[in-house]
Amino acid sequence: MTATSRNSPFAAADEPPEPDFQNLCDQARDLAESGHLKRAAQVYTRVLEGGSRSHRALAALGLAVVRHDMGDISGAREAGRIAMDTGHPEYAPRAAYHLALSYEAEGVAEQAERAWRGVLDAGNDRYTPAAHYGLARLAEERGDAAGAVAHWGQVLEGPDTALAARAAHDYAERLLARGEVDAAAEVVQRGLAAEEHPRLRLLLGAVCVERAIGEFGAVVDASRSDPEGARTVEPATAAAAVELLARLLAVRGDADGAERTWELGLTHSDTATAADVRSRLRRGFLAPHTDSPAEGGMDAAPGTGAGDAPAEEVVAWWDPYLEAAVTQGSLPMLTGELFSAVDQMYTRLAVPLADGETRVAALRHTLQEAVRSPGAYVWGRSLHEDFAERLRLATGAEADVLSEGWPDHDGPRR
Fold first, then answer.
1. Helix H segments across 8-144?
2. Quick check: helix, strand or coil at residue 400?
3. What does the alpha-carbon distance between residue 100 and residue 116 come to, in Å, rounded to a whole number?
4. Mind listing the pLDDT tens digit for each residue in 361-412?
5. HSE (CB half, 13 Å, CA atoms) of 384?
6. How many CA atoms, within 13 angstroms, populate the side-chain half-sphere of residue 129?
7. Which among 231, 239, 234 is positioned nearest to 281, based on CA atoms?
8. Apex CA 156: angle with CA 191 and CA 131, to 5°?
């Protein structure tokens, strides 16, 4: 009976079938891809409890990904370490790769470095370049640029051309930030040799800009090098270098450097150079009206009336603000302020006009508010003072005809 029952074809029906762990891994993956993360985690856990090394490695990696997507970062890392411990040639380095990225995202550098070195120790060439890239980044972040060099080189020489191009962009940007322009140019070229990419081309342009800044800066320095004030560079050459250097610094985002460069040119010891720099700075400025008060009423600038000696240059009240805006790179802000002031004045004047307002007091109040509008801006006080001076010149008065503090305090001076 016993022997017969053991040999019976029906005996196997009383024993549970051997689990198909590969099929279970496939089921778990399908569940995860369809969004059933909790169920996928349960299936992966079942494989971990009884599968072979290969299946356990695959299940641990899958479980790490699923737990990460569920927001269980700690559990994901635990599963990742299980996959690494299996030593599987494919799944262990993949798990270490994801573990390293997880630690990097959290800023845990020591653990991230340990994980990246785990990728290297696995010896899988598919993941080796990524590990070197990760170790290069970590070395850079802790200020060990020298220690990062070897890792950068491994990535740039590796078989993954897309990764090499991305790493070249990253590395070249860091070199540029440190002022190592020639080294950055070499790295960009190595990246382009691996893979053509617009970001690398853009960075190559930035390298050219940095080189141009250096060349223009050398001309500016040479023009100011003689302590006796002797002319060492022709004014036109020096002024052109000042302008180009300032504008390129502004393009690079160095507004302070651009402003300092303009200031150096405007205060140059050689008067001809300083004059040429100012002319370049003012290129495109609107020339103020020069009609005298007697001929053109209130359009004249101070000091240009009948009987005045012809001025070599008429400076409008707004010129200092325009010059400052050019040197500081704040022209868009100044333009926005001007349009805002015009919009406020127009709105205040247009409303009573559209309503057909006829009351003198109401119209006077509207005019007063419109005239006050520019006072909210830095340049508003200069506009008010310039108007008061031109009004005094037009009327021939010896003193201000407007009340002190006008237009905030309305009314003529008594």
1. 21-33, 37-50, 53-70, 73-85, 91-106, 109-122, 128-141
2. coil
3. 6
4. 999 899 989 999 998 899 999 998 898 888 888 888 877 778 777 787 665 5
5. 22
6. 16
7. 239
8. 130
Cα 273 from Cα 237, distance rounded (Å): 9
406, with CB counted inside 10 A (0-12, 13-18, 19+), is: buried
Q: Is residue 107 packed enough to be buried (19+ CB in 10 Å), middle (13-18) or exposed (0-12)?
A: exposed
pLDDT confidence of residue 280: 96
Global confidence as pTM: 0.73
User: Which 8-state DSSP code applies to residue 402?
Assistant: B
Say what percent of the chain tops pLDDT 90: 72
**Nearest residue to 167 via CA among 131, 142, 202:** 131
d(CA 237, CA 233): 7
Question: Which residue bears the tokens 């402003």?
Answer: 259
- pLDDT band of residue 228 (cuts 50, 70, 90) is low
pLDDT tens readout for residues 62-78: 999 999 999 999 999 99
Computed over every residue of the chain, the mean pLDDT equals: 87
* Farthest CA pair distance, the chain: 139
pLDDT, one tens digit per residue, over 372-386 is 999 889 999 999 889
Which segments of 195-270 does DSSP mark as H helices, in order? 198-223, 235-252, 255-266
Please give the average per-residue pLDDT across 39-44, as a whole number: 94
| 45-51: Cβ within 8 A, 24+ apart | 46/19, 47/21, 48/82, 50/19, 50/21, 51/19, 51/21, 51/24
